[in-house]
Hints:
By secondary structure, the chain is an alpha/beta fold. It folds into 2 domains: 5-27 and 281-381, Aspartate Aminotransferase, domain 1; 31-275, Aspartate Aminotransferase, domain 2 (3-Layer(aba) Sandwich). It contains 14 helices and 12 strands. The strands form 3 sheets. The protein has a 7-stranded mixed β-sheet, sandwiched between helices. A 3-stranded antiparallel β-sheet has the order 9-12-11. It has a two-stranded parallel sheet with strand order 1-10. 43% of the residues are buried. The model has no long low-confidence stretch (mean pLDDT 97). The chain binds pyridoxal-5'-phosphate. Residues 79-81, 106, 108-109, 157, 161, 186, 188-189, 209 line the site of pyridoxal-5'-phosphate.
Amino acid sequence: MNTLKPLFQLDPEITFLNHGSFGACPTAIFNELVQWQKKLENEPVRFITSELYPALDVSRKVLGEFVGCDRDDLVFFPNPSTAINTVAKSLRLNPGDEILSTDHEYGAMNRTWKFICQKTGANFVPVEIPIPVSSHEEFVDRFWSRVTERTRVIFISHLTSQTALIFPLEEICKRARKAGIFTIVDGAHAPGHILLDISSFDPDIYTGACHKWMCTPKGVSFLYARKSVQNLIDPLVVSWGWESDEPGKSRFLDYHQWQGTRDMSAFLTVPFAIQYLKELNWQTLTKKSHQMVVDFQNEICQMLNTPVICANPHMWQGQMCSILLPGSPDPMKIQSQLMDNHNIEIPVFSWKDRVILRVSVQPYNSEADLQKLKDILPSCLN
Ligand SMILES: Cc1ncc(COP(=O)(O)O)c(C=O)c1O
């Protein structure tokens, strides 16, 4: 077994190739969570009234340095859904306004926009991005050709969930800023997965999850908002920070940080998690994971006689790849066969008219994990 796997709390009997769905947290980072929870429960009043906010400040500082933004331009949220809902519900959209997006977005986010459109009369416009994807230029041209005078918002993933592709955000955000279009980037999969520098592409809004590829405990995500748009965003939950009696240094933090009594211990694990992974030399290890993904994808696509989903995996992919399975097999049947009969945890799902097997590789995975999948998959497809 890979020597890193015992550092995680994962069941050693299971070949875990699904880090992408909900991440996985090493024991040491999980213990850090418990330490914070114990501190909280040891003296709840002192902790919440005098220790919590300075600790959150440190955590935001360290996270800001990691993702490339000022600590006061980000606020912790439990997950990307609440972060995106906060922003989407704040937009003053009118009937006929357009939210330009792609057909690769995450289902829960599509539902969020459908809900918003039903309430406001705006239209969600998902641009078709055909696969295999080829060049960034072709992607941007196709996407941008659908901008109209009614386009108010661009909503786009940084790294897509179903197709596991890294989208070229730089050019899109640059053009959107020039055109005065509000940009919202869904970076749920990005932090800890790809080198992230939010300031380099300057979106209006960015959300990322830390409990996926940064390996924090569940319930750690963030909402970044460019300074110029922070005052547009209403709190999803109105609490003491709205019309605060004691305003802090930022209305953005006042509005969104305190949402009633809750356990924010998981947010405080971020500095430890970043340092822990650094000491394991994680960034170098993940380069190897990426190469394992690329090699595996080539081999399995050749074996199944199915096209690779992108022209240049080094440009379009990180530590996940989506394999387009041949024919139209029953995804639930394949997934449960892999899990129930062979202890392989991996997602298989329908996406548009295709069936996809999505492989995630983290440094705790070994070549043997991928070999096992390669050996077993053909029998599940028959
Ligand atoms: C691309 C993308 N966006 C948003 C989300 C939403 O995350 P959550 O359900 O944790 O809010 C996910 C979850 O996997 C995702 O993959």
